[in-house]
Write a structure and sequence with these properties.
- There is one protein chain.
- This protein has 11 helices and 7 strands.
- It is α+β, with helices and mostly antiparallel strands and about 425 residues long.
- Among the domains are: about 130 residues, no CATH class; about 130 residues, Heat Shock Protein 90 (2-Layer Sandwich).
- The chain has a 5-stranded mixed sheet, covered by helices on one side.
- The radius of gyration is 44 Å and the shape is rod-shaped.
């Protein structure tokens, strides 16, 4: 239960140990003071008297081996050097102190905060100094303090510190990998959103531009013949109605894909494909543009994306014929080859005849002079669709007049 002061909840106090460990410098100072006092008391108890010079020398060495510990987090190398030197001199002189683990603790700090090569070098220097001091004491005949405790503690503390440093490095690497993975997922999500927006923009452009172009032409025809040829006007209005309904169905499909992305609902209508090209051609014919559909070769299996791309390319090209070519005839050629499928749309409307190559070899349509991408959404959208499948699109004035669009996509190794 959370304690309360009136109506205001009061946060519980953290454990005493946690509060104490929150002040590491103070903890180090207390530890250094404890060992300094203990060592001084031990020196006083072992000394012949305060008037003897060796007592003060022993006391100075005892303080040098303990007091600097308070700064071991800020200056670990300097503190370790002072403590090790003091202990080494005291050991070589045969002075007896209480067991002192402080060099090992400082060496642990060095092993944690320095790279392994530097930490090994420091360990080697400390061990050499302590072992040499113990050897000198042994040769001098001192048996009261051989330095074995300090040597063993230093080695053990270094091993623990190196293990802690390695684990921290490992955990930091895992955290870095996780951060990179999350960053890549975010970037991938942003790319997916951008690609989806482009796809929807292309779909809306293709649907709306084509349908409105046909509707505009048929409405104009109906308006001109309404008074003199009511039967033709009714046919034009029927074409407007059919085109409008088809456009609405395709728009529902696009909106259905948006809903599917949000809540998993299925699309309301299937995406158009190659099988829908005859119906598309009939719509354009109803707008007053004679169109022929020529399918060559043995039909090969195409992915849903390829079929949709072929349909949209033909739709956009025929829309441009309706809007820009004026009185013209158009021809749609779909050719299946061994390793590629090629679709071409050519018209004989008014245009500048320019010789030039640019269509894929064997496309089955006249060569066209390629033109660079412009800000027109139609050409740009067609080129993006083809390049998605590793194909190529060329659009420009035909060699015999009019305008031609040729797109070729490979049949193998393409995304579904």
């Amino acid at each position: 239960m959370v304690p309360r002061h009136g109506d205001i909840p009061v946060s519980p106090d953290p454990p005493v140990l946690q509060r104490v460990m929150g002040h590491p410098l103070a903890v180090d100072a207390v530890v250094a003071g404890f060992f300094a006092v203990a060592s001084a008391v031990h020196v006083a108890g072992e000394s012949p008297g305060w008037g003897h010079p060796s007592v003060w020398a022993a006391l100075a060495l005892a303080l040098g081996a303990t007091v600097p510990f308070a700064l071991r987090r800020r200056h670990p190398l300097g503190v370790l050097a002072v403590i090790t030197l003091s202990l080494a001199v005291a050991t070589a002189a045969g002075l007896a102190y209480i067991p002192n683990p402080l060099p090992g603790v400082v060496l642990y700090t060095v092993a944690v905060t320095r790279d392994r090569r530097a930490a090994v070098a420091v360990l080697g220097l400390v061990e050499v100094a302590l072992v040499a001091a113990a050897g000198a004491a042994f040769l001098a005949g001192y048996r009261r303090n051989d330095g074995t405790f300090a040597v063993l503690v230093a080695a053990a503390a270094w091993f623990v510190g190196d293990s802690v440093r390695a684990r921290r490095s490992y955990m930091a690497g895992l955290a870095g990998q996780e951060a990179d993975r999350q960053r890549e997922e975010i970037e991938r999500a942003h790319r997916s959103v951008a690609e989806e927006r482009l796809r929807i923009a292309r779909e809306l452009h293709d649907v709306v531009a084509h349908s409105l172009s046909v509707i505009a032409v048929q409405s104009g025809v109906g308006r001109h013949v309404a008074a003199t040829q009511p039967e033709e006007a009714r046919k034009a209005l029927a074409a407007v109605e059919a085109t409008s309904r088809a456009a609405l169905e395709e728009l529902r499909g696009v909106l259905g894909s948006l809903r599917r992305a949000e809540d998993g609902a299925p699309a309301l209508a299937p995406e158009p494909g190659v099988a829908d090209l005859p119906q598309l051609v009939e719509q354009v014919r109803a707008a007053g543009v004679p169109v022929e559909l020529d399918v060559r070769g043995d039909p090969a299996p195409l992915s849903r994306g390829q079929q949709l791309s072929i349909y949209r390319i033909v739709q956009e090209a025929l829309t441009n014929v309706v809007k820009h070519a004026g009185p013209a005839r158009a021809r749609v050629t779909l050719e299946y080859r061994r390793d590629a499928v090629t679709v071409g749309v050519a018209d004989d409307g008014p245009g500048t005849g320019r010789a030039g190559a640019g269509a894929p070899d064997g496309a089955g349509v006249a060569a066209v002079a390629p033109v660079p991408s412009s800000g027109r959404h139609g050409i740009v959208g067609m080129r993006e669709r083809v390049e998605t499948f590793g194909g190529k699109l060329v659009a420009g004035p035909g060699a015999r007049g009019g305008f031609e669009v040729v797109a070729s996509m490979p049949l193998h190794g393409v995304p579904g």
